[in-house]
Amino acid sequence: MNDMEEYRYPLGKYEPAAEITDTDVDDYIRVLKDFPGRLKNILESWTDDMLDTPYRPGGWTVRQLVNHMADSHMNSYIRFKLALTEDNPVIKPYNEARWAELQDSFTIDIKPALRILKGLHQRWVYELKALTNRELERTFVLPEQQKKISLRESLAFYAWHCKHHLAHIENLKKERGW
Question: 9: closest CA among 176, 171, 145, 159?
Answer without folding.
Answer: 171
